[in-house]
Design goal:
The chain is mainly beta. The chain contains no helices and 10 strands.
């Protein structure tokens, strides 16, 4: 079973930036499209960024132009660069395949203060 570990979250003021990392216990990323998901309190988990195995990306309208997903040189890492953060970006962020194939990791909390 692959384990996913997200990191890099924190507390930041509106307009600030964070870079999230996702590491997997196995080299799965080259064989799957990977996604960044988030879940805000009281809301459903949503997909906000996707990166194909070829490196093509697409984003939810709410984050387009502000978030950038990329793959690491290692086969088991993906990143999410988040710029111009807004309070509505506050959520727990997770990575997983698209569509979801693996058990969810613990996520990383992102809190954006106004």
């Amino acid at each position: 079973q692959v384990q996913l570990v997200e990191s890099g979250g924190g507390l930041v003021q509106a307009g600030g930036s964070l870079r999230l990392s996702c590491a997997a216990s196995g080299s799965i990323f080259s064989f799957n499209a990977m996604g960044w998901y988030r879940q805000a309190p009281g809301k459903q988990r949503e997909l906000v960024a996707r990166i194909s195995k070829g490196g093509n990306t697409d984003y939810a309208d709410s984050v387009k132009g502000r978030f950038t997903s990329s793959r690491g040189h290692a086969k088991n890492t993906v990143y999410l660069q988040m710029n111009s953060l807004k309070p509505e970006d506050t959520a727990v962020y997770y990575c997983n395949t698209v569509p979801v194939s693996w058990s969810w990791g613990q996520g990383t909390q992102v809190t954006v203060s106004s």
